[in-house]
């Protein structure tokens, strides 16, 4: 029998800010920028009573709760504490999957014989709290879906164990919103059908759910019934995505080289967002005409935004490219990948910046990843027949 633990740092961004500045305790907090054109990335529990939620324009949030304290966000601190918690958990569990900057799955199967998994999970949670000062909750069950739902029921700063055989009854009274994969659009479809609670989905024939929602309907039906065989995938910091380009003719043309780096960075950034991932490390590679290879890397705050990554890539190129030799190959690699979304990287950006990324990605999803690009990188599209800009996922 499997035993899957899901740990989730409570209100991670708000908790981190309060850890750094204790004067923020029990005060309404809005994270996402200090100007009215920013968007709310995270908000404290005190603001939710005013109807404030993530993704809301900061101006609207401030109108609803004028006394709220606006914070631009400290991505460096969030990355630091995320990695600190990761190291604590990784040392104590057999298999760890980092599913986001503040969420973790661990497979504790078989440990009951020696430790008692619920007791062990409690001790692990207390270790995280005592060593970091951050509140954290967990759900423990036989699969990832039920454990994820359980941790949300357990919050704030608590724990729940769902015993084997009780998964279906645990899920039954919950809102269908609690089922993973049920977003706002799907929720509205289900509500239009008169489906409000998970129990109703459990009682429906699976063919009806498939008829309404297609293949997603089957997955939602299984999850509503507490069925999920998805494995915990071991977390590895060496997981990466990269691009390389070999020139037909070695070049020293800096204009061409930098435009190519722009195109490659755009492509990789889009792939990160498409797969809902963030990177914390950039590696730049140059191979010269004498076949000597040089690389330079830089750790960064978690991001998948073009403008942030592009600045860093060009900085690395300027630092690395010091020889007056012809260049045969350039490559970019983004590593230390975790799951995460675009919003946490746009603390100081306004809603137009966020909407621009959404619009560009929508066009790429519909017409292909090379369908739209910066003007400076257009020339590189002529190089596609020589060495296509196709990303490769590495997991060593």
Automatic annotation (TrEMBL):
Residues 4-183 form the UmuC domain. GO terms for molecular function: damaged DNA binding; DNA-directed DNA polymerase activity. One of its GO terms (cellular component) is cytosol. Gene3D superfamilies: 3.30.70.270, 3.40.1170.60, 5' to 3' exonuclease, C-terminal subdomain, DNA polymerase, Y-family, little finger domain. One of its GO terms (biological process) is DNA repair. This is DNA polymerase IV. It comes from the Bacteria. Belongs to the DNA polymerase type-Y family. Pfam families: IMS (PF00817), IMS_C (PF11799). Keywords: DNA-directed DNA polymerase, Mutator protein, Nucleotidyltransferase, Transferase. InterPro entries: DNA/RNA_pol_sf, DNA_pol_Y-fam_lit_finger_sf, DNA_pol_Y-fam_little_finger, DNA_polymerase-Y, DNApol_IV, Rev_trsase/Diguanyl_cyclase, UmuC. It comes from Aquimarina algicola.
């Amino acid at each position: 029998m499997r035993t899957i633990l899901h740990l989730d740092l409570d209100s991670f961004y708000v908790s981190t800010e309060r850890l750094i500045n204790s004067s923020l305790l029990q005060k309404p907090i809005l994270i996402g920028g200090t100007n009215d054109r920013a968007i709310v990335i995270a908000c404290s529990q005190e603001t939710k009573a005013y109807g404030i939620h993530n993704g809301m324009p900061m101006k609207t949030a401030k109108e609803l709760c004028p006394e709220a304290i606006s914070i631009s966000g400290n991505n460096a601190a969030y990355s630091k504490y995320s990695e600190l918690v990761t190291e604590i958990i990784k040392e104590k569990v057999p298999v760890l999957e980092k599913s986001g900057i503040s969420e973790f799955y661990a497979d504790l199967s078989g440990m009951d014989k020696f430790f008692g998994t619920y007791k062990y999970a409690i001790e692990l949670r207390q270790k995280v709290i005592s060593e970091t000062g951050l509140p954290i909750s967990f759900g423990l069950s036989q699969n990832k879906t039920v454990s994820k739902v359980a941790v949300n029921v357990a919050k704030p700063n608590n724990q729940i164990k769902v015993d084997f055989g009780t998964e279906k009854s645990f899920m039954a009274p919950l809102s269908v919103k609690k089922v993973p994969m049920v977003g706002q659009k799907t929720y509205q479809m289900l509500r239009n059908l008169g489906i409000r609670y998970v129990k109703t989905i459990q009682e429906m024939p699976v063919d009806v759910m498939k008829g309404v929602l297609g293949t997603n309907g089957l997955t939602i039906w299984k999850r509503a019934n507490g069925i999920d065989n998805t494995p915990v995938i071991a977390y590895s910091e060496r997981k990466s995505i990269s691009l390389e380009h070999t020139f037909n003719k070695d070049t020293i043309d800096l204009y061409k080289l930098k435009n190519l780096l722009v195109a490659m960075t755009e492509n990789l950034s889009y792939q990160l967002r498409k797969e809902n991932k963030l990177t914390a490390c950039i590696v730049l590679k140059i191979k010269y005409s004498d076949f000597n290879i040089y690389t330079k890397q830089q750790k960064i705050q978690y991001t998948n935004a073009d403008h942030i990554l592009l600045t860093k890539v060009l900085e690395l190129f300027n630092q690395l490219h010091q020889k007056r030799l012809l260049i045969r190959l350039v490559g970019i690699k983004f590593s230390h990948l975790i799951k995460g979304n675009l919003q946490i990287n746009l603390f100081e950006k306004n809603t137009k910046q966020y909407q621009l990324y959404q619009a560009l990605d929508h066009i790429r999803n519909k017409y292909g990843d090379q369908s739209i690009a910066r003007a400076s990188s257009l020339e590189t599209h002529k190089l596609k027949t020589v060495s296509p800009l196709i990303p490769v996922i590495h997991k060593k």
